[in-house]
Amino acid sequence: MLVTRRHTLGLFGAAAGTLILPRRLMAQGARRSITIAVQKISNNNTLDIWHEQSNVGERVFFPNLWEGLILRDWMGDQGPVPGLATDWKRLDDRTLELSLRQGVKFHNGDELTAEDVVFSFSDERLFGGTGPVGGETIYAENFKPQTAKELPASVPGTGRRLWPALRGVEAVDKYTVRFHNATPDVTLEGRLMAYGSQITSKRAWDEAASYAEWARKPITTGAYAVEDYRPDVSLTLVAFDDYWGGRPPLERIRFVEVPEVASRVNGLMSGEYDFACDLPPDQIATVSGTPGLEVQSSTIWNHRVSVFNVQNEIVANPLVRRAMTHAIDRKAIVEALWGGQTVIPAGLQFDSYAASDMFVEGWAVPDYNPELARDLLKQAGYKGDAIPYFLLNNYYTNQTATGQILTEMWRAAGLNIEIQMKENWSQIFAGEGTRGVRDWSASNLINDPITPMVNQFGPNGQAQQMREWANDELNRLSVVLETSTDRALRRKSFARMLEIAEREDPVYTILHQNAVFTGMKSELNWKAAPAFAMDFRATNWNV
């Protein structure tokens, strides 16, 4: 029987004092459920933080499902705050000790202990037998799973991308752990709050029949647990009332995959959806002009970039890549497609680097100079052969329109760019020797140039793991950035890396800082974080 508020009041009126509600219902009270329209839920049909390293993953994973020892202050300055660990201290420049929060429950009812933390950074869960790599690239073909329980081939390399020198985690006692690094690392605390370093239940992993089974319903400590996941369709999270941070304010959060912008907007306006994500700026007036709706927006710590592939024999010439960087009028893109609501950053840098004195002052993206671009192409001996541009249909906001504008700018400088539309990331990376350029984005995960410069373009960044590009000097400097405790040396090394990656031997070129526009029902009184992540914990839900 459906017990409505009117029915309940009627029962009280008929027999005052005789109705006793179930204890669980009394404790919970009425809670709202919401539906969120997104363009994509997961790129690889798993909910594993190490396998699904993406912007769309950030939205559904954090901070509602996956949690780490140190959390990111999603609704504040994006800095570190206590999470599953209440405090931490450095024992030396290679060792970090953390005290676990006692009484934290996993979604299966188990208490979080040091055993789960040790497991979450183990060979079985993450590293696949790899040791500290020190600048050596790890390729997926070296880790082909032999059983259904083994990790996907890409995970060990992804693990060493963020934890290049971790030797292991020691359980000092039930609620104390120590992280032991093979080298000094000033960013250990930051690595613990980054995308990937979240904790899972060891028992849940052990009991899963296969990796695929576990990865579609991981057991974590978040405010919401996975109730139902239908790849390419929907993901439903349900309130976990034993959450250490307090009772979750929502009963359910349902993410539905709606690839087309118009369908997301129409569903929001009709009331089918409570939120519509990834709106382009040209839809802001439509949504905000509708009674009862509003748009939450902000620039975020993520830059849109174009990435080059030197396996293409034309693009292998750095003069061609340099020409492509100078043929782009970034200001025109920001004004035409973003209404001036985002900015052109100082290369692959974020303002937060200034807090640790790692921001390289005076650096800028390559200037818009089509004459220089044409001269560089002449020096390269470019004959006008086609350069394939692999493009997804609006995985990123305004992606297709941006790709079309870029193509025209490149053509105006004398480049024969040929757009080839692809359906997914697998198809993007399948064109090893054909693809000349593709789209990507780069996020700041640690408030240090380790991310995204080393994390995405260093020896174990995806660009090098996919053999799109490599540079020996940049790889040596990556190790300096990862291991040195000399701030001046680290900043000098980072400055040189910018010169290599953006000027001399370009692997990418920055387009603009990213921005997120989310349409929503105004009555919800919810605030968007300056990130892809959507916070639905009690501290950000005020209906």
TrEMBL record:
Keywords: Signal
Keyword flag Coiled coil: no
Membrane-spanning intervals of the chain: none
Top-rank taxon: Bacteria
Entry protein name: ABC transporter substrate-binding protein
Compartment annotation: Periplasm
Lineage: Bacteria, Pseudomonadati, Pseudomonadota, Alphaproteobacteria, Rhodobacterales
Homology family: Belongs to the bacterial solute-binding protein 5 family.
Record-linked InterPro entries: Peptide/Ni-bd (IPR030678), SBP_5 (IPR039424), SBP_5_dom (IPR000914)
Matching SUPFAM superfamilies: Periplasmic binding protein-like II (SSF53850)
Native species: Ruixingdingia sedimenti
Keyword Zinc-finger: no
Solute-binding protein family domain span: 80-457
